[in-house]
Amino acid sequence: MSIEVKVPDLPESVADGMLMSWHKSVGDQVSRDESLVDIETDKVVLEIPAPGSGVIKKILKADGAVVSSGEVLAIIEEAVTDASEQPASSKAESNQMSAKQQPVAAPMSPAVRKLIADNQLDAAQIAGSGKSGRITKQDVVDFMSSSRSGSRKSGRTESASIIAETMAFPSMPVDGSAGDRAEERVPMTRLRARIAERLVQSQQTAAILTTFNEVNMQPVMDLRSRCRDRFEKEHDTKLGFMSFFVRACTDALKKFPVVNASIDGSDIIYHGYYDIGIAVGSPRGLVVPVLRNTDTMSFAEIENTIRDYGTRAQDGKLTLDELAGGTFSITNGGIFGSMLSTPIINPPQSAILGMHNIQQRAMVVDGEIVAQPVMYLALSYDHRIIDGREAVQFLVSIKQSLEDPASMLLGL
After folding, report:
1. Judgement on whether residues 92 and 146 belong to the same structural domain of the protein
2. Which label site among 78, 82, 238, 251 has the fewest CB atoms less than 10 Å from its CB?
3. Would you say residue 158 has pLDDT above 70?
């Protein structure tokens, strides 16, 4: 009995996808739910599993093909045959498959495979530390670090190091000879092309302005210091800064509903819910998974969800539903050392908050000049529906919540 391998149903916002690479060839035996092929959309990379066990009889779509919902990609024959009995025609088809279509020694996520390919590495030389010898992203980063002469051993946090390494562009082979002006032309990924399209759309269709403010982070840092250990023990997750910002933004959105609204033609749509997108760096580019109904989420739920999103973004495991929608966004350039920036609105949203690096700066506290940990905040907003007064007051509300976290926690 034959089994069809089909493209899963894609949401309306995703018209089609492109086949990145087959992990199996014609004649290969596969097990049910084993990853067969990756499909790159303009939002995520989808791993297509085998719907049943058997032998791949035919591959109908080659690498690079553009496919849409429901299209048949391959045929699996349920009757498992011995490899030595494989028909000559199947063997010929199998030989025509490119080297990258051959089965890998151990299962790897799309992000890991791309990182290995971009840096022209041999997966066989990389020791996997994951379950059943699975090669993780950190294994690849460690391998590259150990291979580089004079590799850097900076004091960055583990997560920041991983993001910085995995977001690096593929190295371009240059022989270093005098006057060498080598160039390399590579096509944009679908995600990068989509990012470019949406950012240009945002600049061309919205009247974007940015207002700034500064916040004294000492109260939040003191609260975190007092409660960090108990919080982690109770909820099995670390207490970061982002949960405070998500809660502060949610409270401010309640006070200023127009910041949570969007434009549809000549209408303004006021959303009665609070879905906040958190910009996350991934090997394929920037993605913005969404926290749903943040007004009902606890600090622990916010921290757990963001940490889960960050991990799965690196491994290419985010789903389309998790990236869809959103009424407001937060982006944190501070983890890369940014002091100040003007973030671009993620359409059709009407505003985005930019967080930045925390630095000791001189502030007047109780009439005295003292050094305090200060973060600059930036709110970019669509002036078509949000007036400057509302934007400034919205940002001031966030500042007040962060500088007095007790009132925020008590709902005052």
Report:
1. no
2. 82
3. no
| Two structure tokens written together for 348 | 């059709």
Q: 289 lies in a domain?
A: yes
* 178 part of a folded domain: no
Looking at the chain, how many residues does it have?
412
Higher pLDDT, 2 or 343: 343
Beta strands in 94-252 (DSSP E): 208-216
Same domain, 236 and 268: yes
Does the N-terminal peptide bond of residue 348 adopt cis geometry, omega within 30 degrees of 0? yes
Supply the mean pLDDT for the chain: 80
Helices (H), 105-189: 110-118, 137-147, 158-166
CB-CB neighbours of 407 under 10 Å = 12
The reply to whether 138 and 265 lie within a common domain is: no
Can 235 be counted among the known catalytic residues? no
Residue 106: what pLDDT? 54
List the CATH number of the domain containing 396: 3.30.559.10
pLDDT of res. 148: 52
For 118-127, write each residue's pLDDT tens digit. 677 878 788 8
128-132, 304-308, 311-315: range with lowest mean pLDDT:
128-132
Considering the entire predicted model, what is its pTM?
0.64
Q: Which amino acid is at 326?
A: G
Residue with tokens 């460690």: 142
- pLDDT for 84 beyond 60: no
Structure tokens at 187: 């096509």
Q: Which of 180, 366, 383, 404 is catalytic?
A: 383
86, exposed or middle or buried, with CB in 10 Å at 0-12, 13-18, 19+? middle
The domain tally of the chain equals: 3
Active site residue 387: yes
